């Protein structure tokens, strides 16, 4: 059974301590399918998901991410890579420089929400050396690393509701 989407949005938070138990394959597949269903400019789907469960590769990823140890601790790390060339074919430079990154970020968000809905903890890692991540997963040079998503079962105490700015502080209605 999955959670309501609004509950997933409210309850999701970064987890940096994971249990060693691996995510069952059917659950992981559902999470990846959610990522693949993300919207994309021209429906080009300019992303690739490299699913890393090899501790030696996870160590290289952690090193590339300035020693963020949740990458080693998580049983699974999904490296989301964008293919700028795919977006460039239809949208030129704006597609290559922006759309493919936006599209891949939307896929990352779908992965995070699906994980939350299925009871899987996650942490989006965005601070890393792109080239080192690309080398760690042996991705072709044309691909750009956009995000590392650590996935597993939480080994942390539940967190309180996260504070957010009030809508009136971030919303402007134009009538």
Automatic annotation (TrEMBL):
Protein name: NAD(P)H nitroreductase YodC
Annotated ranges, domain Nitroreductase: 10-75
GO molecular function: oxidoreductase activity
Upper taxonomic lineage: Bacteria, Bacillati, Bacillota, Negativicutes, Selenomonadales
SUPFAM superfamilies: FMN-dependent nitroreductase-like
Family in the record: Belongs to the nitroreductase family.
Secreted found in the keyword field: no
Gene3D superfamilies per UniProt: NADH Oxidase
Major enzyme class: oxidoreductase
Cofactor: FMN
Keywords: Flavoprotein, FMN, Oxidoreductase
EC number(s) recorded for this UniProt protein: 1.-.-.-
Alphabetical list of Pfam families matching this protein: Nitroreductase (PF00881)
Flavoprotein in keyword set: yes
Coiled coil (residue ranges): none
């Amino acid at each position: 059974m999955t959670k309501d989407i609004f509950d997933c949005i409210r309850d999701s938070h970064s987890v940096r301590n994971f249990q060693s138990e691996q995510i069952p394959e059917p659950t992981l597949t559902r999470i990846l399918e959610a990522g693949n269903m993300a919207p994309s400019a021209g429906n080009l789907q300019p992303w690739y998901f490299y699913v890393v469960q090899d501790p030696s590769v996870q160590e290289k990823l952690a090193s590339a991410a300035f020693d963020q140890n949740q990458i080693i601790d998580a049983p699974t790390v999904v490296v989301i890579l964008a293919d700028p060339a795919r977006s460039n074919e239809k949208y030129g430079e704006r597609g290559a420089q922006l759309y493919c990154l936006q599209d891949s970020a939307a896929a990352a968000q779908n992965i995070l929400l699906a994980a939350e809905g299925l009871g899987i903890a996650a942490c989006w890692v965005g601070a890393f050396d792109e080239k080192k991540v690309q080398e760690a997963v042996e991705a072709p040079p044309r691909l750009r690393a956009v995000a590392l998503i650590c996935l597993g079962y939480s080994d942390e105490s539940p967190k309180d509701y996260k504070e957010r700015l009030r809508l009136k502080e971030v919303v402007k209605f134009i009538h």
